[in-house]
Amino acid sequence: MGKTKHGGPIKLDTSWKPSLWASLMPMGLGKIKPHHIRDTMKVAYDNRDNLGYAYRILTQGVCDGCALGVSGLYDQTLTGPHLCTTRLNVLRLNTMSAMDAKWFEDVNALRKLSSEELRKLGRIPYPLSRKPGENKFTRISWDEALNRIATKIKNISPKQLAFFLTARGITNEVYYTAAKMARFLGTNNIDNASRICHSPSKTALKRSVGIGASSCNYQDWIGTDVLVFWGSVPGNNQPVSTKYMYAAKKAGTKIILINPYREPAMEKYWIPSVPDSALFGTKIADDFYQVNIGGDIAFMNGVMKIWFEMEEAKPGSAINHEFIKEHANGIEELRKHVMNESWDKIIQSSGLSRERIKEFAQLLANSKNGVFVWSMGLTQHKFGTDNISQVANLAILRGFFGRKHTGLMPIRGHSGVQGSGEMGADPFSLPGGDFEEKSWDRIEKIWNFPIPKWQGDIVGITLENAVLPDGHERKTRLFYTSGGNFLETMPDPDFMEKCLESVELRVHQDIIFNTSTLVDAKEEVIVLPAMTRYEQPGGGTSTSTERMVYFSAEVEGPRIEEARSEWEIYVDLAARVNPEKKHLMHFSNAAEIRAEIALANPNYDGIQHLKNRGDVFQWGGAWLCEDGVCPTPDGRANLIPIEIPDLNKPEGHFYVTTRRGKQFNSMVYSKKDPFNNADRYDILINAEDAKELRIAEGENIVVYNKYGTFQGRAKFEDTRRGNIQVHWPEGNVLIPKGVYETYAGIPEYNTAVKVEKADTFHANKDLKYVEREVEDLEVNVG
Predict the structure, then answer these.
(1) Are 641 and 202 in contact (CB under 8 A)?
(2) Coil, helix or strand at residue 60
C-alpha cells in the first residue's frame, strides 16, 4: 500500500518570527493559558518518591499518553526533545506504590471518593474478590481468581461472555493476545476503546479509499498549503502537536479549524520547548469556521456545490480532473447530488453563510496541497461514517492524498489505540483484516483452531445485554474489562450502573480502582492487578497515528509484587478453560507474540525485529494510496453522495455536545480548563443566546431533555449560536442511551436540549412536567 519510506525527523526552525506571536507580554502573564512550568513542578513533587524511575520512564519508554509516538523524548517528526503535560499527568499511574490494605475494608467509604481520589490511593496490589452483601474486598490468590473465572466461562454460552480493553498504555501484544484468546474461548464479543472513538474513520476510509488508517505523516503538516482540523483540538488533546503546527506556520501553512466553538487552544498556544513561543505564544489557526453541531455534512456539500459552480464557469478551477480520471469513481453521481441540494438547506444545517462557505471552498481550490485532520467532533455522531466520507470526498476531488504534504488523518488520542483493531480486538475485525470469510480462513490456518462465525456485539450492546431476561442466549453473564470506566464514559450513567450490576461475574483487570470497580455484581466482582507497559517483560509495541510501530523496552524500577503482564493473564486463563488445547493459545514471551503478529497481519511484517529501545518501523510506507492507487477492488477511490442529516432541532432548543477539559479520557486532572478557565460544571453558551433567555454570565442554569437534567453555570464563550457545550463525563446524563452509528456502532454523544434559569426551572417544573414537554423530542443530533 505504500512504497516511499519516512525520511526521519526534520530540523525545527526556531528562529524568532514576531508576526506569529500571540502576545507581547512575556510568558503570557495575565493570560488564560496552561502553566507548563507549574504543572511540571507539581508532577515532580507527586513523583518525588520514585523520581529516578519516573525519569527513566520519560527518557526510555514510549509515551503512554497520546498517539503522536514519542519514544523517550524524541519522535519521527521533528528534532529536539518533546514532553507534554498530558504525558506528565499520566506518569504517576506508573510510579505509584500499592494501595493501603485498609481501603479494602470499607467499600462504602470508597464509594464516597471520586475517580480522581480513587486513583490517588495507589496501585491494585493483588487479586481481590467481593460478593453480594459484602462491604469489603477480600484478598484471593491468582489461582483462586483465575479458576473462578475459568469455571464461570465453562458454565455459560460463549455468546454470554464479553471482553473489553481500554486504550491507555495497552500494547499491541496485549491486544493481539486478547483477540486470539476471545476466539479461542468461542466468543466474538470483544471490543476496545479505540472503536468507541474512531470506528467511523475506519469504516468510511475503507469504503472511500480502501484504507483503515491515516494516509500520511505528521511531517506532511509542515509545508502543506492548508492544514484543516475538523472537530479536533490537538492543542488540548495532543499538546506536542502544537510544535508541529508551529513548524507548519513557519513554513507558510494556513491552519483552519472547523468547530462550533472557537477553541482557545487553537487560537494561541505557548509551546514550552520553543523559546519565542514559550515567551510570547504562537498564533495557531488562521481562520475558524464555526459550524453547527452536526452541520459538517451540509458545510462540505456547500463547498462541493461551490466547486461544481466554479467548474461550470472555468473547468479545472476547483476539481483535479486528471486525478479523478485516473483514480476515482462516481463524480457524476456526486455532482448531481450536490447540485440538487438547496442553499437554504445547506445554510440552515451548517450554520454558515454562503459567503463563508465560498471562502473556504476557494481556499482549498487555490491550494496545491492539503492535509485534513479530524477527531471525535466528527466521529461521535449517529452519522459519523458519513461525516468522514464527506472529508474523503473533498480530498479525492482535489487529489489531496497519496503524496507529500497531502493526506487524510484521523488523529488518535491514546497511544495504544491505532493497533487495537489491527490486532483484531473488536467484533468487526481480525488481525490484518475485517471479520469476514477470507479472514476466517487465513487466521484459522495460523491459529489452528476454528473461529466462531457469528457477529460479536459492540461493548454498548454487550452492557445493555446484561439486563436481558434469564435464558436469553445473548444475556451478558461474564464481563471482563481491562481498564475502562463505563460509569464515566458511556451515555446515561444510571442505566450503565444498572447494566454493570446485572452481570453475574464481572472482572476488572486494571492498575487502579475507579468508580465502576465498586459497582455490585450478582455473584462476584474480581479485581486483577495488571502491569503497566513499562513493566511488561520483553517489552511491548504501540502504533502511532501515522502507523509508526514503536518498541518500548521494559524499564528498570520498583514493581507491584503480584501484578502480572496482561497478555500472560490471558494465556493463563485460556489454559484453565481448555487445558487440552492450551498449546494452541500459548506464548512463552513477548517476542513470540510479535513473531505471530507478523504472520497474522502482513502489514506488521517487521514487528518481529523490534527488540531494542528506539526500534521503530512504519507499516505501509510514508503514504497509503501512494500516487492515487487505492487498495480497493479496482484500485480507485470512491466518491460517495452524502445526504444532509435531518437535525430537527425543535424551536427553542439547543444542540449540545460534550467537551474535554484538563483530562485524559475520563481521568480528570484539574477542575479548571487551562484554556478558557471553565470549571467542570460551566456550560459554554453564546452571549447573544443567553441575553435572549435573560441569563447573566455565572448564573445558575439548567440544561434538560427527556434523558436527563444537568445544572451548572452559564459561561459566555464564542460558540455558534444555538449550540452549547458541557464537559464530559459530567454532561453524559443528557445523552440518550442505545443510540449507535449505523455502520460502525459508535455511541451518539450529541443531542437537543432546553436551557433555563435554575430558579425558573425549579419553581415551575417537576420532573413529570419536563418529561411531558420534551416527550416528542426523539431527535439525537450530531
Answers:
(1) no
(2) helix
CA distance 214 to 202: 9
Q: pLDDT digit string (tens) for 372-386?
A: 999 988 988 899 999
User: Which CA distances in Å does 285 have to 515, 534, 592?
Assistant: 38, 36, 46
Q: What does the alpha-carbon distance between residue 1 and residue 623 come to, in Å, rounded to a whole number? A: 8
Nearest to residue 530, comparing CAs of 166, 162, 276?
166
Q: Which of 664, 745, 542 is nearest to 67 (CA)?
A: 542
Q: Which contacts of 18-21 are long-range, i.e. CB under 8 A and separated by 24 or more positions?
A: 18/280, 20/246, 20/249, 20/250, 20/282, 20/283, 21/276, 21/280, 21/281, 21/282, 21/283
Q: Enter the pTM of the model.
A: 0.95
Q: Specify which residues 227 forms β-bridges with.
A: 255, 371
pLDDT tens, position by position, 575-604:
999 999 999 999 999 999 999 999 999 999
Residue 1: CB atoms within 10 A of its CB come to 18
Q: Judge if the upstream peptide bond of residue 729 is cis by omega within 30 degrees of 0.
A: yes
Q: How confident is the model at residue 776 (pLDDT cuts 50, 70, 90)?
A: very low
CA–CA dist 654, 157 (Å, integer):
45
Name, in order, each residue with C-beta under 8 angstroms of 300's C-beta and a sequence gap of 6 or more: 390, 391, 393, 394, 642
Q: At what angle do helices 354-365 and 343-350 cross, to 10 degrees?
A: 90
* Residues in Cβ contact with 638 at an 8 Å cutoff, skipping those fewer than 6 apart: 207, 208, 209, 328, 329, 330, 632
Report helix, strand or coil for 126: coil
Kindly give, in sequence order, each residue whose CB lies less than 8 Å from that of residue 226, ignoring residues fewer than 6 positions away: 253, 254, 255, 256, 363, 364, 367, 369, 370, 371
Strand partners, 161: 478
Cell numbers at 95, concatenated:
510510579
DSSP labels, 192-259: EHHHHHHHHHHHHHHHHHS-SS-SS-GGGGTT-SEEEEES--HHHHSTTHHHHHHHHHHTT-EEEEE-
> What is the CB neighbour count within 10 angstroms for residue 80?
14
Residue 321 pLDDT more than 60?
yes
Q: What is the pLDDT of residue 283?
A: 95
Question: For residue 777, what pLDDT is reported?
Answer: 45
Alpha-carbon distances, residue 3 vs 202, 220, 619, 762 (angstroms): 21, 16, 10, 64
For residue 715, list its beta bridge partners: 684
